[in-house]
User: What shape does this take?
Amino acid sequence: MRIGLSFDLKTAITERHAVEDAFEEYDSPETVAIITAALESAGHQIVRLGGGAQLLDNIRREKVDIVFNIAEGRGNYRSREAQVPSVLEMLDIPYTGSDPQCLAIGLDKPVTKKLVAAEGVSTPKWLLIMDEQELRLTNWEGFPFPVIIKPAYEGSSKGIRLTSLAYNVSEAEEEVSRILADYRQPVMVEEFIDGDEVTVGVIGNAPARVLGIMRVLPKKKTEHFVYSLEVKRDYVNLVDYECPAGLARDVLDKLEDSSLKAFRALGCRDFSRIDYRISRDGMPYFIEINPLPGLGSYSDLVIMATMLGWTHAGLIQAVLDAALTRYPQCVGV
Ligand SMILES: Nc1ncnc2c1ncn2[C@@H]1O[C@H](COP(=O)(O)OP(=O)(O)OP(=O)(O)O)[C@@H](O)[C@H]1O
Ligand SMILES: [Mg+2]
Assistant: This one.
């Protein structure tokens, strides 16, 4: 097959940003190279489409059978991950992964939490603060502290630092103000669940299945562990990964059940990764879903798959195969 690869290289982004982690979600040349190699090793011809305006030019010129999409989209819009799939749908070109509606919802943490909560999945209490005026009017009475404060529409732990935890109202107000100003978007204040950090991979369609459950353990005992930007950047020195996760059977069952419910509630396709914290009494709390999880060598889904005996190329092929079950017309071309 002739497969287009859509991606957003960090170096292709020319906008100026106030924050140092603005490019955190974008791809490295190494990620593009290993996905290209994985698809080529299965005998496909790869056309690098890139992202943004470059993708618009390339997609009209190049004839491809399907697009393997890892493009995060441009700007800080909450629907940015939907940009490339929307263009591909407009041109009726098949592509891997979830559709624009799912991707737009998945990046909006508060909307996602409402949808999964409606399916009976537990998620920590939260407040959404749209701007400084709402911050001044916020009624904090009865809200459980400590809280974690995060941008409402981000990924890759952008904006989530060691300073994101607040133990009282004045600390919370200060951090909310910082995120409002730096990330130019609403801020979520969420009850902090102090317990195991777990991420769940889901793969396939009709039926989707759990690929694995991985626990992320800090190497050094800390009072309140946060899988923050600092930790993700220095994961080799700061955390250990455990997969399969050494959790009680009933906790694993709840994680599987919640993950498949969340996948279905958002209408995810082909693959996703879902993050949880487990409270001390063994209750998994849904934190967020990544319908377009990273596929670079050091991303959580790839680490998980590798620990379960997959190769990187095998994972990429499984995502493509899942997409092809939706596009039988592409098979064998
Ligand atoms: N309510 C919470 N309770 C405890 N820890 C939390 C909570 N919310 C976030 N965290 C911590 O912060 C980390 C990052 O949060 P979250 O997963 O929401 O951000 P993200 O940027 O979307 O992540 P990703 O890199 O997976 O896209 C979590 O993995 C967890 O360690
Ligand atoms: Mg996360």
Q: What stands out?
A: The pocket of magnesium ion (ligand 2) is lined by residues 275, 288 (CB under 6 Å). The first helix runs from residue 29 to 41.
